[in-house]
Design a protein that fits this description.
two-stranded antiparallel sheet; elongated; mainly alpha; 5% strand; 210 residues
Length: 210
């Protein structure tokens, strides 16, 4: 027995009511819960309401709200959303740490020197401006043109850090000798932001929500 469009809408609305707005998780949940509800109706002879109540007993614990130190204690998400975001944030932190260590080894342990001349300074300044414009453009598009996903949250979370770093870079005249080193770290963070943006767009297209 297949659920009707109205019954699937009831499940979708309930998931939304539980605070799960991110479509990459919400639509998968709708699919899983709908399938389990159909099975309960067929195998146990339950009505739709009875089957849904039975199925939701197993899902309720994953809908409870919680916080995480890894993404910031001022954010609250249902547990199932939090675990997904937390896993991606931990992976990003790991890659950032590896990038930082590798760059530090190259510049300090191997005693590589990056001289800053007028041309190099202009190039680095141009890159910083380009990154700043790209960050603002991505933020405008992702928040006003598309629906929420866990990837959109990660983009929004990383963007204030990037803009703050670029602000410091722009107004700190004492940074001249560290410009390339500092901009490399900013660039790595920007790359991860772009990856999350790309995954967000893929998710939107996957569910035909563009």
């Amino acid at each position: 027995m297949k659920l009707t469009t109205e019954q699937i809408t009831i499940i979708s609305d309930y998931i939304d009511y539980c605070g799960i707005k991110e479509i990459d998780i919400k639509l998968e949940l709708v699919d899983h819960i709908s399938t389990q509800t159909e099975d309960a109706i067929i195998m146990d002879g339950f009505s739709f309401e009875e089957a849904l109540r039975k199925v939701m007993i197993n899902w309720y614990p994953l809908f409870t709200k919680e916080k995480s130190f890894h993404i910031g204690l001022f954010y609250t998400f249902p547990k199932i959303v939090m675990k997904k975001i937390e896993a991606r944030v931990k992976k990003t932190y790991l890659y950032l740490l590896i990038s930082f260590i590798l760059w530090t080894l190259l510049t300090f342990v191997l005693k590589l020197e990056f001289s800053i001349n007028e041309i190099t300074n202009s190039v680095v300044n141009f890159i910083s401006i380009a990154i700043g414009i790209a960050v603002v453009s991505i933020l405008i598009f992702i928040n006003f043109k598309t629906k929420p996903t866990t990837y959109r949250f990660l983009v929004n979370q990383s963007s204030p850090i990037l803009l703050f770093l670029l602000f410091i870079y722009a107004f700190d005249a004492e940074m001249n000798s560290l410009k390339i080193y500092f901009m490399a770290l900013v660039f790595v963070q920007f790359v991860f932001m772009c990856i999350n943006f790309k995954n967000h767009i893929k998710c939107i297209k996957k569910y035909h929500l563009a």
